[in-house]
Design brief:
alpha+beta, L,D-transpeptidase catalytic domain-like, 2 domains, six-stranded mixed β-sheet, four-stranded mixed β-sheet, 5 helices, 18 strands, globular
């Protein structure tokens, strides 16, 4: 009982914002070399398609990716698992998720009415390669197929950041710009999903380590609200910065878009996968296990890197 009271108090105390260390605001260098060609890199709004690019796309379709988490109604509620395993052979291009259903255009920057047809509508949760990206009139557009340009606001692009200095072993990268979660072991990407980070209160940029965790808790907030404006049960909670942590969110399906009061919402099945994967190394940093809230050795615990990738995906 005392443990749960302490946890409730923790999440309703006023959130203290911390300025991110220098260099943690944006990713300014490529961290992953993609294997495919670059014929599509010649395209822009004046030259939106080419036979060479179409051939390149045909030669590099999105492979059949492994989805390690199946939907379980009692666990996942409204949330649909979005996770993939990153192939050991790597990816030919950045992977994208359609975060909201929308219509592609044959030309980036074209908002003509004839684009809004059922034939050009890409359903939510569709996955594809991002073959090229361009900026037109201040908005980024992604090439997701031959003659298919999609507006950035409807897409989450998985970018693979460089490993921050001092980070080793298993760690998590949270991209607030693209609303993605990436689990890595040293420099090897392993697992990725979509998140919903802070909207009403921003999730803090920076490099942190998991310092507390609990398999289940009652979460109330927002921080400082008395009485609380919300109260819900959640699972597989891993705190990394004050009152901010990653936790399961079965009560909505808006992953890929900001929504929370500072925490990082993850589809429950995907959060359970991440919890179990990190727990495989817990003997090194929390030999007492999750029966107590505080991690035994937080300076050895998994790192959580919260950053913002550039609007235009970076790759070589």
């Amino acid at each position: 009982m005392k443990k749960h009271i302490w946890l409730i108090i923790t999440v309703i105390i006023t959130l203290i914002a911390a300025a991110p260390p220098d260099g943690f605001g944006t990713l300014n260098r490529p961290a992953h070399v993609y294997a495919a060609g670059n014929a599509c890199a010649e395209l822009d709004a004046d030259h939106p398609a080419s036979a060479a690019c179409n051939s390149e796309i045909a030669a590099h379709p999105l492979p059949k990716l492994a989805h390690p988490v199946a939907y379980v109604k009692d666990r996942d509620g409204k949330a649909i698992p979005r996770s993939i395993l990153i192939p050991e052979s790597g990816l030919a291009y950045p992977v994208g998720w359609q975060r909201r259903a929308w219509y592609y255009s044959a030309v980036p920057g074209d908002f003509s009415a004839e684009n809004y047809t059922n034939a050009q509508r890409i359903p939510r949760q569709t996955m594809f390669y991002i073959y090229h990206s361009v900026e037109v009139d201040g908005e980024v557009w992604h090439l997701i197929g031959p003659g298919q340009w999609m507006r950035d606001q409807f897409v989450s692009v998985l970018q693979i950041p460089a490993r921050p200095a001092g980070v080793t072993g298993r760690w998590v990268a949270l991209d607030l710009n693209q609303q993605t979660l990436l689990a890595l072991e040293d420099d090897t990407p392993v697992f990725a999903s979509l998140i919903s980070s802070g909207y009403y209160l921003e999730t803090t940029l920076g490099l942190f380590q998991i310092y507390g965790r609990t398999e289940s808790m009652l979460m109330q907030g927002p921080p400082g609200a008395n009485p609380p404006l919300y109260s819900f049960k959640t699972k597989w909670v891993m705190f990394f910065n004050g009152h901010q942590g990653m936790h399961a969110m079965p009560y909505h399906n808006d992953f890929g878009m900001k929504r929370s009061h500072g925490c990082v919402n993850v589809p429950p099945g995907d959060e359970l996968w991440l919890w179990n994967w990190l727990a495989e190394t817990e003997a090194e940093w929390d030999p007492g296990g999750a029966t107590s809230f505080m991690v035994d050795y937080p300076d050895r615990a998994p790192w959580v890197y919260v950053y913002e990738s550039p609007a235009l995906p970076v790759w070589e």
